Write the C-alpha cells for this entry.
Amino acid sequence: MEKILEVKNISKKYQNKEGEILAIQNINLRVNKGEFVSIIGPSGCGKSTLLSIIAGLEEKTSGEIYIEGEKVEGVSPKIGYMLQRDCLLEWRSILSNTMFGLEIKGKKDKEAKEYVEELLRKYDLYDFKDKYPSELSGGMRQRVALIRTLAIKPKILLLDEAFSALDYQTRIMVTNDIYNILRKEGITAIVVTHDISEGRCQSRHQVKYD
C-alpha cells in the first residue's frame, strides 16, 4: 500500500517549575493511504499531544513528520482536524457552518459551495442546510462538523476524541457512520480514543499507548 504519513522518533518535553516533563518519547508511526488507524490509551498518556504535533498545532521537541514523502514543519493543508466538540457556530446556518473553513482559507467560491452542497446531499443533510445547530441531534452535528472539514479536501483526517460527548450507543453509531463517509471519500483517518471497543469497532490498525 502507498504510504501517506510517517512519524519518525517524535518526542515532546514540557517545562514547568520543577523541570522537564516528558510527554511522549521516540514515537514512530507509519500510515498507509486509505487506512483508518486508532491510537488507544488512558487519559494523560500523550495521545492528543501526538495528534496536535502531527497537525502542526504544537511544536515537537525532536523528530520528523513526512506527508506523502515530504517533510512537514507546522500546519499542513493536507490535514484536517476534528476536536472533541463539534465547535459549530450556533448563530450560523448548517450550510454557513460547513463553509466556514473555506472562508478562513479564502476559498469560498461557487465551485466550493457546489462541492459542499453535494456533500450535504450525499450524507442526508441537505434538507437541513438552512436550519441551525441547536435544531440537530448530536450525531447530525458531528456529520456537519465532518463535512466542514471535508470541504477543504484534506488527505488525512485527525479525530481527537471526536465522539466522546455522545452517549455510548450514539457514539458507536456515529463512528460507523463517519467511517463509511471517510471510506467513500478516500480519506485516511487517525482517531485518538481511550475507548478500546470504539477503537476496535472500525479501525484496521490500533496503536496502544500505556
